[in-house]
């Protein structure tokens, strides 16, 4: 079953093949071409296709649209960019300068009629109409980061942020533009999947605005005889075979604790402390010097290195959802394995230097030649393995430095207790007063989670606010969170949204200590996370199972079916459960929710009731970025 990522890669590869289906002959003998993209196009392609793969497809040069480019005749130029005024102006300039002999123009999202006419006029004026071979609308304006995860924007992602959607003085026109932008990208996701979903969403929210617009857009396309994008050929079935998927559209406001939560799994930690973006992190070459640098002991800027974390990296695929201590142990084990393979090759080399012509020596050489040949053949894999071990050691060491200097393990453990309504060992105000305990930003995150998940009296609130001020915290997020909580009180029942969460500490890192690992785990807790469903996962499960009645929180969610000429917004009776779903969070998502859905599907695999869930969000936000947005919203209230 092709994943969203596979389908987007296939669409891009077909585009790079001058929009011809790819055959075996082509991959053997590619046509040489140029690729010219804008920032948006680069963000879409870079997590999916490596430079080596571009070369194999005949792309000799890939360059930014808005850079100084020389004329290169005789080679087709493939453009992949958004149809913005600025980009079209630059393309018209290329026509005028006669940069290329053959143009293949691919727009990431459909170009409007007016802009297409302007482009045609520019081509006429430059006298290069015959050079323009193809103009395509690609419907690819979303970024796939995992087989089952996508975001809409990376460049200018603030335009779709939680702040942009919720700020006080957003004009109606601006809001319409934000919603249209989200809808256009979601529409592209479903065109790429080749399937029309059934949409569910909460009423009176930004999610409902998106749902209504998307339903209208899908319906108009389905009833448009000339341009229907969902008429599959008889040979091509959609990604979801005969069963239609469910699209769950949610608003970030349904769960404000998770985006601020300290985390404990590898990928989410990389996003939280190393700002993982488009599957890349930047770490310092020598992470052990990291701490002195942080506190300004030396003046020199440390060397940094960009690391790609993608599906080609087996270790990453296996461990991105694992708790950090497990990752440290796994890196150590990989290192041991590598060392033993290396030893084996060394031994073989010494045995090969046997003197004397004796038969024994001769048979040994024969024996070993076979062994050595296989060892030499496995050298490239061994070197690649070493490169990955070194890279993960660097990343994990960087993360470990942050865990230790900011006590992230303790924050994670405390927040899990608060979210699962367990008693704390010591009063929160005492914890916050501890100067050794994390950065002001960490304390702020902890308190907001406490405030969201507990009943805090006005007196206690004021006391803790004073403590936070003394710790040097920026208090601007608090007015907004107070307002949010008072609005949500009516909708949030007293049920525990995060029940079942929590951690237990297992014995200290015995493996790491006994093997003399490079990871000094002293003082870090080996926490094991209990398997539980976060609010987004709970809602998805209820909607997929079509459970209704019994006062569940999804009873009054809208039900929109674009295939019906006139929708009724009501769930039909006896609706069969869904096997596939796309969960999309308007206002920003995070790796914690993504991982929670991945774990949920694994737990359901034995029953075969759920095949797959794709997680999407308008943008990916880590806690620092989300806190900043809450700050801006709080300042608006404070300044009123």
What does this structure look like?
47% of the residues lie in helices and 12% in strands. Helix 5 packs parallel to helix 6 (113-126) and helix 13 (324-352) runs antiparallel to helix 15. With 640 residues, it is an alpha/beta fold. The strands form 4 sheets. Strands 6-7-16-15-9-8-14 form a 7-stranded mixed β-sheet, with helices on both faces. It has a 5-stranded parallel β-sheet with strand order 2-1-3-4-5. It has 24 helices and 16 strands. Residues 233-238, 290-297 and 507-516 have low confidence and may be disordered. The radius of gyration is 28 Å and the shape is globular. The longest helix has 29 residues, at 324-352.
Strand content: 5-15%
As laid out across the biggest beta sheet, the strand order is: 6-7-16-15-9-8-14
Structural class: alpha/beta
For this structure, the quaternary state is single chain
- Average pLDDT reading: 87
Number of discrete helical segments: 24
What would you call the shape? Answer: globular
| Rg over alpha carbons | 28 Å
Helix content: 40-55%
| Record field, number of beta strands | 16
Uncertain stretches of 5 or more adjacent residues: 233-238, 290-297, 507-516
Largest sheet: 7 strands, mixed
End-to-end span in angstroms?
Answer: 53 Å
């Amino acid at each position: 079953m092709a994943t969203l990522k596979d389908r987007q890669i296939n669409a891009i590869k077909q585009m790079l093949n001058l929009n011809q289906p790819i055959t075996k002959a082509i991959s053997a003998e590619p046509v040489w071409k140029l690729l010219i993209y804008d920032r948006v196009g680069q963000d879409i392609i870079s997590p999916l296709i490596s430079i080596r793969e571009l070369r194999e497809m005949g792309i000799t040069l890939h360059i930014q649209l808005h850079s100084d480019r020389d004329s290169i005749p005789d080679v087709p130029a493939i453009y992949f960019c958004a149809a913005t005024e600025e980009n079209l102006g630059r393309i018209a300039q290329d026509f005028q300068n006669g940069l290329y002999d053959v143009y293949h123009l691919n727009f990431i999202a459909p170009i409007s009629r007016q802009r297409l006419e302007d482009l045609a006029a520019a081509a006429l004026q430059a006298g290069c109409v015959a050079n323009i071979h193809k103009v395509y609308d690609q419907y690819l304006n979303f970024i796939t980061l995992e087989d089952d995860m996508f975001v809409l924007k990376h460049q200018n992602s603030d335009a779709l942020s939680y702040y942009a959607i919720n700020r006080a003085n957003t004009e109606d026109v601006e809001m319409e533009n934000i919603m249209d932008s989200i809808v256009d990208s979601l529409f592209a996701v479903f065109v790429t999947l080749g399937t029309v979903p059934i949409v569910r969403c909460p009423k009176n929210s930004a999610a409902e605005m998106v749902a209504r617009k998307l339903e209208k857009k899908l319906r108009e396309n389905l009833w448009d005889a000339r341009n229907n994008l969902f008429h599959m050929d008889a040979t091509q079935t959609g990604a979801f075979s005969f069963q239609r998927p469910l699209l769950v559209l949610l608003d970030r406001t349904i769960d404000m604790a998770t985006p601020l939560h300290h985390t404990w799994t590898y990928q989410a930690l990389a996003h939280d402390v190393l700002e993982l973006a488009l599957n890349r992190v930047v770490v310092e070459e020598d992470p052990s010097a990291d701490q002195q640098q942080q506190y300004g002991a030396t003046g020199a800027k440390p060397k940094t290195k960009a690391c790609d974390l993608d599906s080609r990296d087996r270790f990453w695929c296996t461990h991105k959802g694992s708790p950090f201590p497990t990752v440290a142990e796994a890196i150590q084990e990989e290192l041991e394995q590598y060392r033993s393979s290396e030893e084996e090759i060394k031994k073989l080399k010494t045995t090969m230097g046997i003197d004397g012509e004796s038969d024994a020596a001769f048979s040994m050489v024969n024996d070993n030649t076979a062994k050595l040949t296989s060892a030499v053949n496995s050298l490239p894999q061994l070197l690649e393995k070493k490169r990955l071990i070194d890279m993960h050691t660097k990343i994990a060491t960087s993360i470990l430095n942050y865990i230790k200097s900011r006590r992230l393990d303790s924050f994670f453990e405390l927040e899990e207790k608060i979210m699962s309504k367990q008693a704390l060992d010591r009063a929160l105000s005492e914890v916050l007063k501890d100067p050794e305990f994390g950065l002001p930003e960490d304390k702020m995150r902890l308190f907001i989670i406490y405030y969201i998940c507990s009943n805090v009296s006005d007196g206690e609130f004021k006391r803790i606010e004073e403590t936070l001020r003394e710790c040097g915290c920026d208090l601007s997020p608090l007015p907004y969170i107070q307002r949010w909580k008072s609005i949500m009180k009516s909708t949030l029942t007293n049920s525990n949204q995060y029940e079942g969460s929590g951690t237990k500490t297992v014995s200290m890192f015995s493996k790491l200590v006994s093997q003399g690992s490079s990871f000094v785990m002293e003082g870090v807790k080996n926490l094991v996370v209990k398997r539980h469903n976060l609010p987004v996962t709970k809602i998805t499960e209820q909607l997929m199972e079509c459970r209704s009645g019994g006062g569940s929180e999804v009873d009054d969610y809208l039900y929109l079916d674009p295939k019906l000429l006139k929708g009724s917004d009501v769930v039909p009776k006896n609706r069969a459960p869904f096997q596939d779903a796309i969960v999309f969070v308007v206002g920003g998502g995070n790796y914690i929710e993504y991982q929670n859905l991945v774990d949920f599907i694994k737990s359901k695999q034995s029953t075969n009731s759920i095949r797959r869930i794709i997680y999407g969000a308008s943008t990916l936000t880590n806690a620092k970025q989300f806190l900043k947005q809450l700050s801006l919203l709080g300042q608006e209230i404070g300044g009123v």
